[in-house]
Each structure stands twice: as structure tokens, then as C-alpha cells.
Amino acid sequence: MKVLVIGSGGREHVLVWKIARSRCAGKIYCAPGNAGIAKIAECIPISNDDIQSLLSFAHKEKVGLTVVGPEAPLALGIADTFRKEGLRIFGPSGNAAQIEASKTFAKGLMQRYGIPTADAGIFTDVDTASEYIKEKGAPIVVKANGLAAGKGVVIASSEDEAINTVRMMMVERVFGEAGKQVIIEEWLEGEEASFLVFTDGKSVVQMPPSQDHKRVFDGDTGPNTGGMGAYSPVPAISRDIQDRIMNDIVVPTINGLANEGCPYEGVLYTGIMLTQCGPKVLEYNCRFGDPEAQPLLMRLQSDIVEIMEAVIDKRLDGSAVRWDDKASVCVVIASAGYPDKYQKGEVITGLEEVDKMNDVVVYHAGTTLHDERIVTAGGRVLGVTALGDDLKDAIERAYDAVGKIHFNGMHYRRDIGQRGIRAIG
Ligand code: AMP
Ligand code: GLY
Predict the structure, then answer these.
(1) Which of 67, 118, 347, 399 has its CA 20 to 30 A from that of 250?
(2) 186: Cβ–Cβ under 8 A, 6 or more apart, which residues?
(3) Cis omega before residue 233 (within 30°)?
(4) Which of 282, 286, 287, 290 to mutate to test the pocket of ligand 1 (most atoms within 8 A of CB)?
(5) What pTM was computed for the model?
(6) What is the average per-residue pLDDT within 235-254?
(7) CATH number of 125-180
């Protein structure tokens, strides 16, 4: 069967890598892909939001399964369009994807179904928002309602900063229409975790917890990024806490969506804060996380295409989803300047050295081929991912591999996974 993967980041590289190991997959296409993906799939120059061209391509090539990596095409309703035309696609409908694309929709759902989350108000004008901020005090969190490429959340340490942020979002429209409405919410304190599940709308099968590292610098300092690294499993999250997250958060979310006429299927990612009062939802994503997918899918032992087919056919069965007991760590290497303006076109060396290592894979994100050389083409460039007997071993292997790679201006965090080690110790 031919498979089409949509997207061009590290998440899509690991998806293609894992699909290539499936006994059901034949030829694999990726639109638009990157230089690493091009080694194992045919890259097609169609952008991920050009739904009509993707549809024509899938028809023309008789693609048997389409897998959507990023949120943008899902929010645009790519799954609805494909299904209407009889094409099989893994991912939620446009309505269900609102759980990520509209923070007000997600907050309303949580409030209606008693799902634990930060207290919040929803605002459409600066004055009322400012009054609310003055009433609640700082620190306080301001979020643009719509999709803002992971940049639409500001944790304001003063009332002035919060009010200025509201103005930037609502008046200056730095995130365009996404900032027409803002959510202002209570600042939650605790350890953050990513909790992903496969679901066909009825059965819900959890993946092992993972943890992202959002800030650009060591020790969780500096501005937020798309994610500088991730690891799994997360020793701080006991079986008991996982059961609580499933029973009090994930299952009620999926049932709530079904109850409101937008049944969910695909991967549901819940961003959790483990607070003193128990786990609370920070956000939902309607897809795999990036970089969480890299360590998670390296640990997945089952055939991912079989799982995706079971989701589409509504016969998902937990016993068919098995995980390696090993730990996995992904260290992201970024371009100079990221997450602000960054350099492109730097030649990357050392990748062949890492190819020779066991249980280490370099998933590409912002890379492209130029004169037969692999060069940087984005902010997050590579996700160096290793399996190890335990977290410490996986960390050592990942950094060993990172040490062999070079490009001008590259930077990465040196403490990926250390939070997990501290939690054990
Ligand atoms: P979001 O896109 O909603 O996940 O927000 C991005 C990041 O901002 C999260 O991963 C958290 O680190 C942080 N964040 C979001 N909401 C809150 C909150 N209510 N309290 C503390 N931190 C938050
Ligand atoms: N790693 C965070 C995300 O994928 O949204």
C-alpha cells in the first residue's frame, strides 16, 4: 500500500521512518518533506496547507493511507475532504481539531465537562481584559485564541506586561486573526508533561508519558521554542497519576467531544501541568508532538500502520500497541538565532558518523539538499534521538552523537532529560 505523510519536520521524519518499518507499507511519499526524509521517501513539493493539490496527488497515485503530521491542515479540514472522497486518512476532522485550533473551544469543553484546567476568562476587548488582569494580579497567562505556531502564549510576570500583551494580540494583531479573542488564565506551577493517546473515538490507548523542553536555554531559561528536546518515559509520573490523567482528563475529553457532535479520532496530545492539586490541562494538540514523537516512536514496537488502520476502522485494541522498556531521548540542534531570526544554508557535517551508531537516529527538521550537500533550512534543524537501557544511558548516547555533528552557529541544550534523572534520584 502507498502511504503519504504530510509535513516537513522531525515529527514527520520519525513518522516516515516508522512507517517504512511496517509490513503494510509500500512506497512512501512525503509532502513536502526534508533532506533526511528524502533518503527514505519520495518528497513531493506540495505545501501542507494546499489541500486540493494533496487530494489530487493522493487520487492520482492511489494512496492507500494519508498521515497528517501538523495541525494546520487538520484545522483546515483535510480529514473531512479526504474522507468525503473515499480516501483513508489518519487524523481528526476539522471540527474535532478545534480542540487545538481554538483555545476558547478547548476551554469551554473543559469547563462543561468538569475537566481540571486553569481558571480562565475569555475576552474580545482590551478594557474588560485589563480589568480582569488587575483583579487577578500577576503572574498571569495570556493566550491568543487561534493557531500562532506555538508562540501565542505569554506568561506575564507583571500586570503591565499582561495588559501590553493583550494590546499586542488584540490591537496590533501580531498573530493576525488568532489574537481577535484572548484567554487570560491562572498561572499553574509544577512539572509539565505530554500525555499522548491513540483513539478511534471509543477506545483510548495511552502512549508512555513524555516530556518536552520548551525554553531555548539550559535550566529552562530564555524564550519559548517549538521544543528543544524530549524524553520518555517520565519517572516522575507514576502509574497512579497516569490513571488519573486518563480517567479524569483524557477519557472525559474524548467522550465530551463525541457528545458535542465532533467525535475524535487520531492522536490526542494533552499538555499537562502536575500541580499540587493534581494534574491539570494546559492545552490540547490534535496530533503527535514535535519533538515528543521522536523518542516515543523509537520506543513503539508495534506496526504503526496497523495501529492507524485500526483507528480508521474503529477497531483499536490496546493489546496491539506495545512499547520498548528502553528509555529514549531526543536532543534538538537549532540554527544560530533560533527561536528569533535565524541563519540558513549552513553545511551540516558528521551525519555519516552517527549513521554508524546503533540505536541512534538523527531525524531531520529544517534541512535541505544544496549541491548534493545537506544544509540548514529552518530553526530547528536536527533531532538526535537515542535509545538506552535507562534514561542516563540514552542521554549519554544522544549527546555522544550530537558531538559528532557540526554546522556553523549550531546550538542545543545540554540538559535534556536531566529533569527525569533528578526525579529518580
Ligand atoms: P500552550 O501552547 O497553551 O501549551 O502553552 C505553551 C506553554 O506555556 C506551555 O507548554 C506551558 O509551559 C506554558 N503555559 C501555558 N499555560 C500555562 C499556565 N496556565 N500556567 C503556566 N504555564 C502555562
Ligand atoms: N512539543 C510541543 C508540540 O508539539 O506542540
Answers:
(1) 67
(2) 118, 119, 120, 136, 140, 141
(3) yes
(4) 282
(5) 0.96
(6) 96
(7) 3.30.1490.20
Distance of CA 101 to the CA centre of its chain: 13
CATH architecture of 3-91: 3-Layer(aba) Sandwich (3.40)
Length, in residues, of the chain: 425
Question: Residue 287: helix, strand or coil by DSSP?
Answer: coil
CATH number of 191-318: 3.30.470.20
What distance in angstroms lies between residue 134's CA and the mean position of ligand 2's atoms?
Answer: 31
Alpha helices in 233-320 (DSSP H): 239-245, 251-259, 293-299, 304-312
Mean pLDDT of the chain: 96
- Count CB atoms within 10 A of the CB of residue 135: 9
Mean pLDDT of 119-128: 94
Place of cell 495588559: 163
- With the CA atoms of 301, 306, 309 and 310 taken in that order, what torsion angle do they form, in degrees rounded to the nearest 10? -80
Q: Tell me the C-alpha distance between 49 and 71, whole Å.
A: 10
Closest ligand relative to 283 C-alpha: 1
